[in-house]
Every structure is written in structure tokens, then in C-alpha cells.
Amino acid sequence: MPAIAFAQETRTTTDRVADSVQLAQPIATLTNVTKRYSATTALDGLSLALRPGEVVALLGPNGAGKSTAVRLLLGLITPTSGTARVFGGDPCNPVTRARVGAMLQVARIPETLRVREHLDLFRSYYPRPLAMKEIVRIAQLDGIESRMFSQLSGGQKQRVLFGLALCGDPDLVFLDEPTVGMDIEARRGLWQQIRTLAERGKTVLLTTHYLEEADALAHRIIVINKGKIVSEGTPSEIKSRGAGRKISCRTSLSPKYLRTLASVTSVEQDRDAVVVTALHAESVVREMLLRDETLRNLEIASPALEDAFLALTTTR
Amino acid sequence: MSTTPLIYSTARPSILVYAIGVYVRETKYEFLKLLRAKSFSLSVIGFPVMFYVLFGVVNRNASNGNVHIAKYMLGSYACFGLVGAALFGIGVSLASERAAGWLELKRASPMPPMAYLFAKCVTAIAFGLIIVTILTTVGVTMAGVTLTAGELVRMFGMTIVGSICFASMGLLLALVVPANAAPGIVNLIYLPMSFMSGLWMPIQYLPHWLQKIAPALPTYHLAQLMLNIFGYANSASMASHWTGLVGFTMLMLGLSWLIFNRAQQNA
Predict the structure, then answer these.
(1) Chain A closest CA to B7's CA: distance in Å?
(2) How far away is chain B from the Cα of A48, in angstroms, using its nearest Cα?
(3) Are A6 and A51 in a shared domain?
């Protein structure tokens, strides 16, 4: 079963990275941060720490406070109470900012400048910029450097924003909803570029409401809702806290019997198939195969992060 | 996956080289950005030139006492043009960059905030000078205007001063006006203010009650200082006009500073 072996392998790799970074000193922290705007509380006593080399996803529904957390760490806003530190200093400090890159949600970028000109300008802000051709290579901007920004597709525009975040060769990169509004192909392209960053040892904080994205990229996921941390852990840990896995198959076993099996939480009929949700899918499947030799069309849905996420954000 | 080593720009630049690099690029790209934005450059350069061709060239032989109307209008449309460049180039563009989140992205970088304002101000001056150069060319070639070299130099000097003063008003507008309403609001201020200060037609031709209001307007003081270069000013006291213009600039900068600080505290 090579596929399963591979899956096992990647999971332990993720866990190993997670274990090794646990030991290092955090390079960016929010400590007990509350951020209030006149009527609303965007963050409510939130603490988080980013350790060197890890990719952390801040996952939550719209309005959960993800962007507020990023803007606090960028020194664009100040906390109502609590502290934000980056590289041991104030995030507003230009010396700190020279080591940080950011991709924010920008509604409109000046359209009458060429891609190369945008990059040239941002490179000039940093004391030790990354070489132009490196930025172009990593952000996959080859062939469009001379285009006006207005002539780019949505995906290309996001790539330019990603390129701008790389201009200073930052040690810490914030990506606020980096793939919002992108089609699937463009999104996967950007995921690859974010992985390239991680391979280079950069620390990345990524906010997203695409659950799949957090699962695909992060060593660690922090689920937040209404300004508070709801859950925190590796993608596999987060998933295991959810409602379990879905086993779908055609079987002669009765739903009534299936409900009696250990760890089964629900049994539903989906057209010809029966869908069994179980926390310990393996033992349930073993039992079902034993009892029904005619069982066919077996599928075990990958742990539904979506469901886990919904369960986590709605129960509290 | 790739193991290509990263290529860094070698030698760490000194602070001065770094600062010059930022200021020069910020200014260059600000200027290019606005020049290429046809909706901006065509209207900001086009309107004063068109008005001057329509009203100035027609009056090439007209004079009022010792005032050559076409030459008078060269001065007043120079003011009209440079004020427009400053209000639209700074007020409208800064308001929209602020609303779109572009300014925030720049602020998250180590960009020195002064470089951003410097670039906008220098760009406004550059557009002011372009407009005055075109108007002067039209005046000399088509409207029979004669200028001494000294008058020309002083006109350019006054253009720079005026651009800086109205850049401060652009800054204040950018801070208080919502971005999507900015072009409309700027026009609502800019056009009546220009008319009432005698930038479209000599102020003597305006109703008396309007002439009474004019000294309350910064554009009036700018126009008088500009016209004084040709000896066409209304009153002899240039000190009062300098006081009016400089006081106005200080007021705009002071209000901008207050509003900016209050916004920072709420952020």
C-alpha cells in the first residue's frame, strides 16, 4: 500500500518539524492581546507565538480576527491591551520591518506601473533586497515583468503581491488570505511558491478561510473564532478533534446493526450507498468486511477538515 | 526543491545611498504612474491649456489700462493649473491609495513615510511646471504675450511655491474625504474657489460682493503673487498675500497633523 505509506511518511515529517520548532525561541509573539474598535472586539485575549522555520495557518471564518492579528504583528495597528513583539522588538520599528515581508489584501494597486517597476520600488525600501531575477523566479513572474499592472490576470496580480512580499528577502512572511479570488490552478501554483519559502527556512504566518489550504501548507494550525483561539495543533491533530471519518460503501448490513458498532457516530443512506461516520474508521471497516463479503465500492473520506472546523467553531 | 543559492545584492549600502535610492525611485514612479494615468494627466494638463487657448488667445489684442489680458490670463491660468495638479495629484490619489489598502502595504514595509509624501509633493511640482511651460508656450506663440527671462524664472519659482502650498491642502483632503467621493468633492472646492479668486477671468470683472470674499481664499493670494510678477497685482501689499498663502499652508499642515495623529491613536 504505497499510497498509505506515503501519507504516513508526510505526517511524521510534519510532526517532526513541529517538534523541532517547539524548542526554538519564538521570533514573533502576540501576548494576551485584546484589540477593541469602538463597537466591536476584534481580538479577545489572544496569544500566539511563531517559531523560526514553521508555517502557521491562522484559520477562521470571516471576521474571526485573522487580519487584525496580522496587522498587529506588522505594527500597522496597536493593541488595546497586551503586547506584540517581532524579532524581540516593536513591530513598527523600521529595523524590524526590514526583516519582514507582507502580502495583504489590497483592493487596488497602482495600475499604470509595470511589474518590474513595482518590484524595483519595493526592493529600494530594503537595505538588503533579494535580487530582481530571484524574485521573478520564485514568484513566477517570468515573461510578465514588462506588463502594466492593469494588464494582468487576477492570479498574476496576486503573484506580484507575493513578489512584493519577497523583495526584502524577509525571515518572516505574513500572507493575509493569499489565494483569495484565485482559481484552483492559480491557487495550487501559489501553494507551491509558499512551500518554496518554507523550504528556504522562512517563517510564514498564513491566514485563510480555505480549510484545505491550511491543511496543505501548515505545520501548525491555529483555529480562531470571534477573536479567541478555539483550537491549535498539527493538521492531523485538528482533524482528529473533528467528527471522525466517513466510510461510504454498498453493503447488505443493516443501518441498525451498523449503529451498534463501536465509535460509530452516525449512519446515513446516500442513494445506493451507506455512509458511516466513525471516530475509529479502521476498526469499523475491519468489522464490516468480516460480516459482509459482498461489501463493495468502499471509500473512506479523508478526515473532513471542513467538518472538524465547523464543529470547532460552532460548539464553543 | 531547488538548491540554487540566493543571490544577494552585495555590499551593504550606506544610509545616505539607501535614502537617495528610496526617494529617487519613489518620486520617479509616482510621476510615471500619474503621467501614464490618462484620466489624470489629460485632464489636469488639458483643462487649463484648453481654457487658456479659448479665453487667452481670443484676448490677444485686448487690454485694460496697462494690463494685457492675455498675459494676465497666463498668470491666472498658471495658478489654476498648478492648484489642480496639486489637489488631484495628491488629494485624490492619496485618498484612493489609502482606501484601497495600498498605502497600508507600503507602511508595512520599511519605506520612510517622508519619502512617500516627498514623492507626491515633487510630482505635483513637476506637473505644475509642465502646465506652466505649456501655457507660456501657448501665450508667447499664439496670444502675443511677451515675457522677460526674469519674469519667466519668477513664474517658475512661484509655481514651485504654489504647488507646495496646495500640496498641503491635497494632503488634508486625502485625510478627510472618502476615496470614492474625492474627485467630486475636490472639484466642488477647486472650481468655485478658482472662479471666485479671479483665475478664470480678471477679478475686476467679477461682482463686487465676490471680490470682497476673494481675500479669504488661498487661490486669490497665490494669483496676486503670480500676477505681481507682471506688475498686474490688485494691491501693492505683497506681504499680506505672502501671509495669507503661508498661513493657509500652515493651517492645512497643522490640521493634517492633528487628524493623522488622532487616526493613529484610534488605530
Answers:
(1) 6
(2) 20
(3) yes
For chain A, strand residue ranges (E) read 28-36, 41-50, 55-59, 81-86, 100-103, 172-176, 203-208, 220-225, 228-233, 245-250, 264-270, 273-278, 296-301
| Exposed/middle/buried for residue B248 (C-beta within 10 Å: 0-12, 13-18, 19+) | buried
Phi/psi at A49 (5° precision): -135, 135
Does one domain contain both A172 and A279? no
By mean pLDDT, which of A133-147, A291-305, B180-194, B241-255 is the weakest?
A: A291-305
Task: Assess whether A81 and A57 both reside in one domain.
Answer: yes
- A315 in a structural domain: no
Q: Is A204 helix (H, G, I), strand (E, B) or coil?
A: strand
Cβ-Cβ contacts under 8 Å, A78 against chain B: 267
**Domains identified in chain A, total number:** 2
- Closest chain A residue to the Cα of B22, Cα to Cα: A124
Decide if A129 is inside a domain. yes
Last residue of a domain, one of A199, A215, A240: A240
DSSP state of B39: H
Q: What pLDDT shows up at residue B261?
A: 85
Q: What is the pLDDT of residue A14?
A: 54
B259, three cell numbers: 487628524
In B, which residues are within 8 Å of A112 by CB distance? 32-34, 36-37
pTM for the model: 0.82
Per the domain annotation, does A195 fall within a domain?
Answer: yes
Please give the residue range of the domain that contains residue A251: 245-303
The C-alpha angle with vertex B122 and arms to B80 and B36, in degrees rounded to 5, equals 80
Residues ≥6 apart with Cβ < 8 Å to A26: A49, A50, A51
Q: Is A22's pLDDT higher than 60?
A: no
ipTM over 0.90: no
CATH number of the domain bearing residue A261: 3.30.70
Give A160-201 pLDDT, tens digit per residue: 999 999 999 999 999 999 988 788 888 888 899 899 888 888
Cα separation of A195 and A201, whole Å? 10
Tens-digit pLDDT profile for residues A203-232: 999 998 877 888 889 999 998 988 999 888
A280 and A224, same structural domain? Answer: no
Say how many CB pairs under 8 Å bridge A and B: 99
Exposure of B19 in the CB half-sphere (CA atoms within 13 A) = 7
The reply to whether A38 and A179 lie within a common domain is yes
Alpha carbon separation from A42 to A31, A47, A68, A74, A86 (Å, rounded): 15, 13, 7, 16, 20
CATH number of residue A178's parent domain? 3.40.50.300
Residues of A with CB below 8 A from B22's CB?
124-125
Q: Is A316's pLDDT higher than 70? A: no
Which helix (H) or strand (E) segment holds residue B108: the answer is helix B102-108
Picking from B264, B47, B248, the residue whose alpha carbon sits closest to that of residue A92 is: B264
Cα A209 to Cα A182: distance, rounded to the nearest angstrom? 13
Nearest CA among B105, B100, B3, B84 for reference residue B41: B84
